[in-house]
Amino acid sequence: MGTLRAGIVTVTPFQENCAILFDEEDKCGVVVDPGGEADRILEAIDKAGARIEAIWLTHGHIDHVGAAMELKGALGVDLVGPHEADRMLLQNLEAQARMFQLAAPLRAVTPDRFLVEGETVSFGDHVFQVLHCPGHAPGHVVFYNDNAKFAHVGDVLFNGSVGRTDLPGGDHTTLIRSIKDKLLPLGDDVGFLCGHGPGGRFGDERRNNPFLTGPVGE
Questions:
Q1: Which CATH number do you get for residue 99?
Q2: I need a surface site. Which of 32, 95, 103, 216 has the fewest CB within 10 A?
Q3: The total number of structural domains that make up the chain
Q4: DSSP assignment, residue 24?
Q5: Whether pTM exceeds 0.85
Q6: Is 100 among the domain residues?
Q7: Domain boundaries, position 166
Q8: What are the pLDDT tens digits along the chain (218 aa)?
Q9: Is 215 part of any domain?
């Protein structure tokens, strides 16, 4: 098994972290959350020498899926995820664009398949557990690789913060429960990438994140 590598392309005015996860040796990999600027993502894939096998989506917000269909067409790969609870978000990107005063028309995103809690997705020898972690979005999923002690958490958890819950389908109490019940038990040594800003480790968030040091829902 080759080493798991991660490259980040920060795209659009939302400063969203599109991730390219790939095997260092055989270069097979996936793109996670192509939020926009497909040309820049394709350039980064080419620079890394990665062979992309699929596109994985953590959730259906416009800043994470804006280039999903364009990239799917360019790469000729399947679009996988998120959980089906985000189907309405994916089908109503025009409404999301209006909410954020974005002028460019966007195609609805149609995954080749949705994901459910407990299944796995993989590329090469790198296997990721799928964790359904609602709260920021109803169908948000997290991808966790136990061998590498690594998680892509999307917008569930941030370094020193948590995902916003004021968008349609958001719920703060549900989000905190997702983090405390699904993510933190994976272990303090788990490193994570998130949808915006720098990543971190679960242990540091458990000890220091002000949203997690009080009772659930605070």
A1: 3.60.15.10
A2: 103
A3: 1
A4: T
A5: yes
A6: yes
A7: 4-208
A8: 689 999 999 999 999 999 999 999 999 999 999 999 999 999 999 999 999 999 999 999 999 999 999 999 999 999 999 999 999 999 988 777 777 766 655 778 999 999 999 999 999 999 999 999 999 999 999 999 999 999 999 999 999 999 999 988 999 999 999 999 999 999 999 999 999 999 999 999 999 999 998 764 44
A9: no
Strands (E), the chain: 4-11, 16-23, 28-32, 51-56, 78-83, 113-115, 120-123, 126-132, 141-145, 150-152, 157-158, 161-162, 191-193, 200-201
Q: In sequence order, which ranges of the chain are alpha helices (DSSP H)?
A: 38-48, 62-65, 68-75, 87-91, 93-99, 172-178, 202-208
| 218: in domain | no
**Residue 206 corresponds to which amino acid?**
R
Q: Is residue 56 part of a domain?
A: yes
